[in-house]
Design goal:
The complex is a heterodimer. Chain A folds into two domains: about 240 residues, 3-Layer(aba) Sandwich (Rossmann fold); about 170 residues, Glycogen Phosphorylase B (Rossmann fold). The termini of chain A are close together. Chain A has a seven-stranded parallel sheet with strand order 3-2-1-4-5-6-7, sandwiched between helices. Chain A has a six-stranded parallel sheet with strand order 10-9-8-11-12-13, with helices on both faces. Chain A is α/β, with parallel strands linked by helices. The mean pLDDT of chain A is about 90. Helix content of chain A is about 40%, strand content about 15%. By secondary structure, chain B is α/β, with parallel strands linked by helices. In chain B, a hairpin with a 6-residue loop joins strand 6 and strand 7. Chain B starts with a strand and ends with a helix. Classes of the chains: A alpha/beta, B alpha/beta. The interface between A and B is medium-sized, with 23 and 22 residues.
Chain lengths: ~425, ~475
C-alpha cells in the first residue's frame, strides 16, 4: 500500500497541532510493514526525520523546465533529496507555468507558514501537486487539512486514485461561527470530492455532517493520539522555586482557546486562596486584552504571561505545573492535555474539546462554566487525593493512547475505500 | 416444603447540592432539596404506594399466608416522613397485618461497619428505635448497608442482640454451595445467615422486562416452577431486591405488579410457603458454617466493597470523614449531628467510583454527577465546611479527654445551677433566708462561667 500524503507542516518546524498530528500519524502508520508513505510539504528545512517516510518539498518541485546540472542539484539538496527525483519530476511538467514567479531551478518559492497571501500559496501548492501526482506511483491520496484539499482533488483527477481527506479542524472551530466564505468554499469542495473523510473527533464529524452537508456514511472518526515522551523530555527537571501551586494555560491566546474564561476562573480561585499562581503561556491576538483583564480583576500579581514557548520549554513549563487547563471554546481535538498528562500533570479540559471524547481521567467542564472550572482548580490544588489520582491514573491512561492504533484505523479506511 | 422469603430494600440518599469551594464557610446547608423531594415523591407515586396497596391486598386475600419483609434505611425514613408521609402511613397499615417484618440496618445507610465500630453500633440502635417508634415492632433481623457482611461484622451485630443476618449469596464465598439453605457464621454458631438467591432475585428486579433475555417474558407459573424445580432438600429461596423493582426499575406497564399478585396462587399449588426472615431462622436449622473473612456486598460482579472504597478518592473522603468521629460524639449540636449522619450515606462514595469508566450503566443511572471527579470535588467541599464548623466548636488542639472533662464540668455546673435555682424559688417565700440563698447560686454561676471561658480560650488557641 502506497499513500501519497499532502500536508502543510512537519516537525521539527511546526506552527500548530497539525504538524504534530501529521508526524505522529505517519509514524504510527509506518509500523505497518507494507505501508509506504510519501509526504509532501511546502518547504522542508532538511532536518526532518525521513527514516520512516519520504518527504518531497514543493519548493523543490519544478514547474518550469530548467536545465540544471547534476552537481548543482547535489550541492543544493544535500542529503535530503536525490537529484534524480528532481529530474523525474521535471519530466512530468504538464503545462506552461512560465508566467509564475519561479527560481533558477524552475521551482515556486513557498513560505511554509500561514502568510497573508495564503490563497495564492494554496493554489501554487496545488500546481506543484499536479507534477508530483504525475510522477509518483501510489494507491491512495491523503490530504491533511483544508490547505491541501485542492492539491488532493488535483491529484485525484490526474491519477484517478481515490482521495481521503483528514479534517484536523474546520473554519467553524477557528472562527466561533463567523466562517470565512473562501475557506468554507475550499473545505466544502474538498469534502464533496473526497471518497472518504476522516475527522479527529466526533465533534468535528458532526460539524462536517451538519455544516458541510456530507453523507454520514463517508465520514468517520479517527481520534488523534500522542507520541511517547522522549528521554530528553523525561530528563527535564521541573522548576519549583516556591511552595505555591501553579496552574498553566498553554496555547495560542485567541478566541478559540477561551483564555478569558481562564482569567475569570483564576479570579474566583484567588478570592478563596492565595497559595496559587496562574500562568498563561503563548501569544496571540487576545494577549493584550487578557493582560488588561487580569489587571482589571486585580490579580495581575498572581497572573503571569511568559509569552510563546518552544520545544523543550513547553515541557519544562508543563512539568513545573500542578494543573493544566484548556478551556477551549471549540477544539477539534487538542493534543496538549495529553502531553500534560504524559508528564503527570492533572488536566482540566472543556467539554467542547474533541479529546474529551476519549479521556476519562481528566476533569471536564463546559468552557463557559467558570464556577465549575474554578472549583476543579481548587479541588486539585487543595485535595491531595484528587491530585494524586489524576496524576497517576491520567498518565496510565494516556500511555495507552498510541498512534499505532490510530494508524490501524486509517489503514482500515484505506482498505475500505479501495474495496480490498 | 420449600419456602420463599421476600425482603425488599428501600433507600434514597440525601443528594448534595452543587457546593462550590467559595461556599465553604459561607453556606452551611448542603442538600439538594428540590431533587430529593422530586425523586422521592415520584418514586412514592409510581412505586411505593401502588406496591404497598398491592401487598396489602395480597396479604388480605391470602389470609396471612403471604408474608414479606422490609428494610428501610434511616435516611429514607427521614425523607419519607418529610416528603411523602402517606407512604409511612401505608407501611403502618402493612405492619398491622402481622405479616410484614421490618429489619434493622444502619440509620445512615453508611459504611460505618467497616470504618467505625462504635458509630456502627450507635446507628443500629438508632435505627432500631426509629422502626419501633414508627411500626411498633422490635426488629429481630439485621441487614447491613448494601448487604455488606464479614465474620467480624457478624460478631458485632450478634453482640447487639441479633441472631439473624441477611447477606449476599456471593460466589466467592459460597463456591459450590447453594444459597438456598440457612447457614451460620464461622465464628458464632448462634448467628444464622440468610443468603440472597442472586439469579432469581435479579430475574425479577433487573431482567423482568428485558426483551433480549432468552427467558422473556417471565410469568408467574414459570417462575414458581423454577423454584419448585430446585433440588429436593433445598429449603429456602431468598428473594432480596430493591423495592423500586415494582413500578420504577420495572415500570408498571411491564406487568410486574400482576406477576407479583399471581405468585401466591401458583406457590400454593406447588406447596411453597412464604415466610419472613426471622421466621425462616426460627423454623430452619443451619446446614453448615460459612466463613467470610473479607467483607462481601451485593454490588457488581465482584461482590466486594470496590464500589465504595475502590479508589484513592473514595478512601480519602471516607478517611477524612471518619477521622472526626470521636470528636463528633462529644457534640450535642443537632444540626452538626444530622449533617454527620447524612454525610455518611454510602451513595456519596458510590458516585466517586471510577469503575463507571469500564462498566458505566448502573453508576451513570444513579449518579447525579457528570463524573467521579465532580462527585469527589463536591463532597470534599461540603466536608471541608463541615469540618470547619466542627473545628469552631471543638478545636483540634484541645485533646479529646481534656475537652470531655471540660464539657462534663460545664454540664455538672449547669445541673447544679438548675438545682439551686429551684431551691431559690422555694426559699424565696421565706424572706429571712433569702439573702443567704442568693449568694450561693451567684458563686456557682461564676465557676460555670470560668469553665466556659476555658473552652473558649482553647478554641482561640486553635485559631
Amino acid at each position: 500500500m502506497k499513500a501519497l500524503m499532502f500536508g502543510w507542516e512537519f516537525p521539527p518546524h511546526i506552527l500548530g497541532g497539525l504538524g504534530t498530528a501529521s508526524f505522529g500519524l505517519t509514524r504510527g502508520m509506518a509500523k505497518q510493514e507494507d505501508m509506504d508513505i510519501t509526504f509532501c510539504i511546502p518547504k522542508p528545512y532538511g532536518d526532518e526525520d525521513q527514516s520512516f517516510l519520504k518527504i518531497i518539498g514543493l519548493n523543490n518541485t519544478p514547474v518550469v523546465w530548467k536545465d540544471v546540472p547534476y552537481e548543482t542539484l547535489k550541492e543544493r539538496f544535500g542529503s535530503y533529496m536525490d537529484p534524480q527525483q528532481y529530474y523525474d519530476l521535471r519530466d512530468h511538467i504538464y503545462a506552461d507555468f512560465r508566467y509564475l514567479h519561479t527560481n533558477d531551478l524552475g521551482c515556486i518559492e513557498f513560505s511554509g507558514r500561514y502568510p497573508d497571501n495564503l490563497l495564492e500559496e494554496i493554489n501554487n501548492y496545488s500546481i506543484c501537486a499536479g507534477v508530483i501526482a504525475r510522477t509518483e506511483q501510489f494507491d491512495i491520496i491523503h490530504s491533511h487539512d483544508w490547505l491541501t484539499y485542492p492539491a488532493g482533488i488535483h491529484a485525484k483527477s490526474v491519477s484517478g486514485k481515490p482521495l481521503v481527506i483528514h479534517v484536523h479542524a474546520t473554519d467553524f472551530d477557528r472562527s466561533r461561527g463567523n466562517v470565512n466564505p473562501d475557506v468554507y468554499r475550499i473545505e466544502k469542495d474538498g469534502m464533496d470530492n473526497a471518497d472518504h473523510i476522516m475527522c479527529v473527533s466526533d465533534l468535528t464529524r458532526d460539524t462536517v455532517i451538519n455544516k458541510y452537508h456530507q453523507d454520514p456514511r463517508k465520514v468517520s472518526t479517527v481520534h488523534n493520539a500522542v507520541e511517547p515522551i522522549s528521554q530528553a523530555i523525561a530528563d527535564i527537571e521541573p522548576i519549583r522555586n516556591c511552595q505555591q501551586k501553579v496552574v498553566t494555560f498553554l496555547g495560542r491566546i485567541t478566541m478559540q482557546k477561551g483564555p478569558e474564561y481562564f482569567v475569570e476562573a483564576a479570579y474566583r480561585v484567588l478570592q478563596k486562596t492565595d497559595n496559587v499562581r496562574f500562568v498563561m503561556a503563548g501569544s496571540g491576538d487576545m494577549m493584550n486584552a487578557m493582560i488588561s483583564l487580569a489587571a482589571k480583576r486585580g490579580i495581575a500579581d498572581k497572573f503571569h504571561f511568559p509569552g510563546f514557548q518552544k520545544g523543550l520549554d513547553v515541557y519544562k513549563m508543563l512539568k513545573s505545573s500542578d494543573v493544566y487547563i484548556m478551556p477551549s471554546v471549540s477544539e477539534p481535538f487538542g493534543i496538549s492535555p495529553l502531553e500534560a498528562m504524559q508528564v503527570g500533570v492533572p488536566s482540566i479540559i472543556s467539554k467542547q474539546s474533541g479529546c474529551a471524547e476519549i479521556l476519562n481521567n481528566v476533569i471536564k467542564t463546559d468552557y463557559w462554566d467558570i464556577d465549575a472550572m474554578a472549583d476543579a482548580i481548587y479541588s486539585i490544588i487543595t485535595y491531595p487525593a484528587m491530585y494524586d489520582y489524576l496524576r497517576i491514573e491520567g498518565k496510565r491512561e494516556v500511555d495507552e493512547i498510541k498512534w499505532e492504533y490510530a494508524g490501524l484505523k486509517v489503514r482500515k479506511i484505506y482498505d475500505q475505500v479501495l474495496g480490498r | 416444603m420449600k419456602t420463599i422469603c421476600f425482603y425488599f430494600q428501600i433507600h434514597q440518599p440525601f443528594r448534595l447540592k452543587r457546593y462550590r469551594f467559595f461556599d465553604i464557610g459561607a453556606d452551611h446547608y448542603y442538600y439538594d432539596d428540590f431533587t430529593n423531594e422530586q425523586i422521592m415523591q415520584r418514586i412514592a407515586a409510581c412505586s411505593f404506594l401502588p406496591a404497598n396497596q398491592m401487598l396489602l391486598e395480597m396479604i388480605e386475600a391470602n389470609k396471612g399466608k403471604f408474608k414479606v419483609a422490609f428494610s428501610i434505611s434511616g435516611v429514607a425514613l427521614d425523607q419519607l416522613e418529610q416528603y411523602a408521609p402517606e407512604v409511612i402511613e401505608s407501611f403502618q397499615a402493612l405492619a398491622k397485618t402481622g405479616c410484614v417484618e421490618f429489619l434493622t440496618e444502619t440509620s445512615a445507610h453508611s459504611l460505618a461497619s467497616i470504618k467505625d465500630e462504635e458509630e456502627f453500633c450507635r446507628q443500629v440502635k438508632d435505627q432500631q428505635q426509629h422502626i419501633q417508634r414508627l411500626f411498633g415492632q422490635k426488629p429481630k433481623t439485621f441487614r447491613n448497608t448494601e448487604l455488606i457482611y464479614s465474620d467480624e461484622i457478624g460478631d458485632i451485630v450478634y453482640s447487639l442482640g441479633y441472631k439473624t443476618i441477611i447477606t449476599d449469596g456471593a460466589k466467592a464465598v459460597l463456591g459450590w454451595k447453594s444459597p438456598n439453605f440457612v447457614y451460620h457464621s464461622a465464628t458464632n454458631s448462634n448467628l444464622k445467615l440468610l443468603l440472597k438467591n442472586n439469579k432469581l432475585s435479579d430475574d425479577m428486579s433487573f431482567r423482568f422486562s428485558n426483551y433480549d433475555w432468552s427467558e422473556y417474558p417471565l410469568v408467574a407459573d414459570k417462575f414458581i416452577d423454577w423454584i419448585a424445580q430446585t433440588p429436593e432438600g433445598e429449603q429456602v429461596i431468598n428473594l432480596f431486591m430493591n423495592y423500586e423493582t415494582f413500578g420504577n426499575l420495572q415500570p408498571q406497564e411491564s406487568g410486574i405488579f400482576e406477576f407479583m399478585k399471581a405468585l401466591p396462587y401458583f406457590a400454593a399449588q406447588r406447596g411453597i410457603e412464604f415466610l419472613t426472615p426471622s421466621e425462616v431462622a426460627l423454623k430452619l436449622k443451619s446446614v453448615g458454617e460459612l466463613s467470610v473473612p473479607n467483607p462481601i456486598s451485593w454490588a457488581d460482579e465482584e461482590n466486594d466493597l470496590s464500589s465504595w472504597m475502590g479508589n484513592d478518592l473514595q478512601r480519602e473522603a471516607l478517611n477524612k470523614l471518619y477521622s472526626v468521629s470521636e470528636r463528633i460524639h462529644l457534640c450535642k449540636d443537632r444540626r452538626l449531628l444530622q449533617d454527620w449522619k447524612y454525610l455518611q450515606i454510602s451513595d456519596h462514595f458510590f458516585y466517586m467510583s471510577t469503575k463507571q469508566f469500564t462498566d458505566g450503566g448502573l453508576y451513570k443511572y444513579f449518579s447525579p454527577y457528570d463524573s467521579p471527579f465532580d462527585a469527589f470535588t463536591n463532597y470534599m467541599n461540603v466536608l471541608a465546611d463541615f469540618l470547619d464548623r466542627l473545628e469552631a466548636q471543638f478545636p483540634s488542639d484541645v485533646d479529646n479527654e481534656e475537652l470531655n472533662s471540660l464539657l462534663t464540668t460545664i454540664e455538672n455546673q449547669e445541673k447544679e445551677i438548675e438545682k439551686l435555682e429551684k431551691e431559690l424559688k422555694k426559699t424565696a417565700k421565706k424572706p429571712a433566708e433569702k439573702k443567704a440563698a442568693e449568694k450561693k447560686p451567684a458563686t456557682e454561676k461564676k465557676s460555670a462561667a470560668a469553665a466556659k471561658k476555658a473552652v473558649k480560650k482553647a478554641s482561640k488557641k486553635a485559631e
